[in-house]
Each structure stands twice: as C-alpha cells, then as structure tokens.
Amino acid sequence: MNKHTIKVFYDTHSWLGIVAGILLFIVSFSGLPAMFVHELEQWQTPQLRDLPAVERVDWQQLVDQAGDDMQTQKSLFIVPEAELGYATLYRRGEDKELISKVLSLQDGSELQPGHSDVAHLFEHLHTDLHLPSPFGRYLVGFAGMVMLLLIIAGVVIHTKWRQQFTTLRITRSWRLLLTDHHKLLGLWTLPFAALLAFTGTILGLLGLISPVLALAKFDGNVDAAVEAVVGPDAEIQGVAQQPLPLNRLYELALAAQPDLQVERAELTGWGDAGALVNFSGRARQTLSNLQSVTLNAVSGEIVHQADAREHGPFYRIFAAVTPLHYVMFGDELLKLFYALCTLALSAIVVSGMMIWLDKKQRRDQRPHWLAALTLGSCQGLVLAMAAALAVSSVSHSMAAQALYEETVFWLVWGLWIAVCLLLRNLAVRTLLSHGCWLIAAALLLAVGADSVLHNSWQGSAVVVKGVNLSLLLIALLSLFVAYRLKKTQNT
Predict the structure, then answer these.
(1) CA-CA distance, 221 to 225, in Å (whole number)?
(2) Cα separation of 433 and 413, whole Å?
C-alpha cells in the first residue's frame, strides 16, 4: 500500500477519533456497569441478598400473586431470575409509566427492592445516553459505526504490528508511553473491540435497519417483520374466560421447543377469550436470543413460533447480537474478561485523544479547549459514577434515593466539565487529573467501608461479595493510575 493511501487512513483514524472520542468513551465505559445490571441490583438491595435459588419456576404462583393491579388486559411481563431467587413483574400504566413488582420465587411473597436506581442510571447511559427515544440509541449506534471505521483504519496504518504487540517503554517520555499503551491495548483487544463495535452498531441502529430488512423480505411491511419475530398481537374479544394454568402453558411451550430456555413471559389480555401468552428466551447451548413460542392462553393452541436455528446464517447472526454484546452466556470468568477488555477499550479511546492533543498543544504552545473538555467529560464520568455509588450506599433507607443518585451523578459530572473548561492553566489541569482519580478511589473505598459496617460481606450472596471486591479493585486501580500519571508526567 502506497504512502498516500496510508496517510489518508491515518488522517481518517485521527480525525474520527478526535471528533467522536468523547462519545466513544462514554459509550464504552458505561458499558462496564451495563454488563452487570443484575449484579448491581442485587448488591444495592438488601432484600434481594441471600435469597435461595430455585430449580423450577412456579409460573402460576407468580401470576396469582401479581394482583389485580398487575393483571390487566394490557401486557404483563414476568421475568424470573431462578439463580437469584426472585422474579420481576412489569406492566405499563395508563400514562405509560412502568409499574413493577418483585416477588420471591420460593413462596411468592412480595419483596421491597428499595428505592435505588443506580444500576439502570448507568445502563441507560450506555443504551441511549439518557436522550429522547430513539435519537439517543441512534447516536450510540453511530458510535459503534465510528469504532468499526477506526479499527479498520488502525489495522491499515499499523504496519509494524508484530513489534508493537510487545512494545511498552514505561521509562521514556509521556507521549511515548501513551503511544505504546494505545497500540498495545489496541492490538490485544482487536477482536473484542470489533465484536463490540459491530454488535453495538446493530443494536443502536436497529430502528433504522428494521425497515431495510422488512423491505427485503416483507415488501416494506415493518409490522409483518416484527410479527414474524415476536408473534401476533392479542385480539381482545371482551368475553371473560378462564385461561389454562400458566404452568401448563409453559409445559406446552417446552413441548414445542424443548431447547427453549425461557427468560420471560408476556401475558396479553389475561382473562379474556383472546388472551395470548408468549414465552421467549434463548436456545440452550446456542447464542440465539430470538426463540419464542406464543400460545392461546385459553386453548393452549400454538399460534406462533420463532426459531432462529431454522433460518439462514444472516438471521442466526442477528439473533446472536444481543447475547454477544451483553455477554449473556458463559460464566462469571467470561464476564470478567469482557469487563477487562471494556476497560482496555476505554483506555484506548482516551490515549488516542491524548496523543493528538499532546502533539497539538506542544506545537501551538498553549492548552487546547478539547483537552479540557476531554478531561472533564471522561474523567468526570468516572468520578460521577463513583459519587453515585457512594450516594447509593449512604441513602439506602431514603424514599428519594433514586433522585439523590441521579442528581449527584449529573451534578458532579457537569461541575467537573465546567471546572476543567474554565481553568486554562495546564499545570492546574494536570493537578485536577491526579485529584480526580484520588477522589474516585476514596469514594469507592468509602462504599467498601459502608459494606463492612452493614455486614454485607458476611453471609451475603457471591454476587454481592463479587461487586464489593470489584469496587475495591477499581479503587486500587484508580490509585495506581493517579500514581503513574504523576510519576510519568514529572519525568
């Protein structure tokens, strides 16, 4: 490949990284807690700790305990967590607000999950950036597309990749250290980054991709395309009729698809003659996430099935996108590997921006506004997450806990961005950078201390202990980063 072509790819790689770098960091770093939403929910909710796992879900008990306020002619979703010992029931209210109830899988009793929402605060940042639907999700999909282009351009311009696989000059200059980290982490995490970018692009742009897929197979009929995947809507007849026991309907669904690992059930029109129940989930020993069986709740007749294994390779790949992106397979060690790679990917994005900014500031002999925005946005996000977790620990008995968490999160992040933009002195910004990591570490250590004081380490579920230990390790990592930044920039 000639030098001109390589230069074009180099410029593309640089400018795409600079223009979309902050967005890429926000999406990639927030993906870390998004992978552990269930674990964070259990960690922050004392009533969900130490619940015994169940081997068999009593579906009928759950629907009986749902109560009249949950059993309406609109959809009721039942999401059991057999390994964690509880199930969550959802439905939409009249003004479209989400109404939920948490029940024990052991005896069907209602649990009080508390008022914290910090896990979903982080999750929604990753999925839609807390922007109005569907624009936030489209922007996340765009970030995935940019990441794919950056990977392609990076592969082309790094021709000495064999040497760069092991090069890390920790005693040299700050710029060389950044460059070595950027290349080293980029090469070692290349397959993971490509997989995450590809799946993230599809999930984010699904609303735009669906009409294209519908045009290809359903002559542009999006409703027909959706029905082919999720099944038909229930036709409410206005005639009350007793449905079959939900456990019996579950058995009929498994008879139709023995390998179906049911993760949720949707009941529509329950108590009506036209009621439907849809059991959906994954096929065991596969990555397919588009398996479902829809039955008439009164007769038990199967009205629709979706099985990705019966379709072509494109449909199978599409069905594997969500499990691959959110690591909905394997064990905790695989999740740990994903987490480490996600941290590495976040570091790649930041180091790439810092390399460009360091070169720009040295040439112009003055601080660049983008450097301040990068410092405020990226490090501010780390600090804001640590602050939200700290607030979640100390306000667990307050009714307005979720409001406190969200307020502190946005306030800390916004203030850190504002302070970094207003301070023009480069030495002060460097001091702020060190201080951010030290404060984040202190907050996370305070969360760990609170866990010890409230005995959440003793007798708690493995998941809870795992979250506490992970927060401790992240705190130690933050201290190490602060130490390395100070030591390296002083040399």
Answers:
(1) 6
(2) 14
